Protein: Sulfotransferase family protein
Amino acid sequence: MKELFTDPAHAREWLRVADGGKPDWKRLLDGFAATIAWPAAFYWRELAAAFPEAKVLLIVRDPASWYASMSRTLYRTRPVDTGQEAAVRDQVIEKIVWQGTFSGRFEDRDHAIAVYRTHLDEVRKAVPAGQLVEVEPSHGWEPLCAGLGAGVPDLPFPVANTTDDYLRRAEQAGVLPQR
Structure:
């Protein structure tokens, strides 16, 4: 998601994909070792097929706290104008996240949480056990490293992109609307 804000060419390519263009995943993700969250998470099936040897990380959180966090961050900073005049990144987010993932119904908490739970279930059913790495961030390094077959670093588990971090960046970027 951060790339949408820092690389206009990358954002334009995601918009092309969001508009139904055939993605060239290897080209679109060239230079990346991994991807997490939107916009790529919306295309998890296609990415798993394009990269069949890749591990699939499934980040699991308590659905109620996930919804509260999404409401306070990404949804709160959603631009009012998401039409053709909106920034390309905002068009991508609107099409993939709010319309694509949540069918324009994110404000319906029960619907959004049901979409989240369905996503978790679908990934668990579709991705082979040896390829799926299910991670709850509060559990730290051990489950992540075990799933990836990597040693546990002698460093604290990173806590990045918290709600406060996100809101601070949004305020600095001038994208925190008063609603």
In short: The mean pLDDT is 89. The domain at 2-173 is CATH 3.40.50.300 (Rossmann fold).
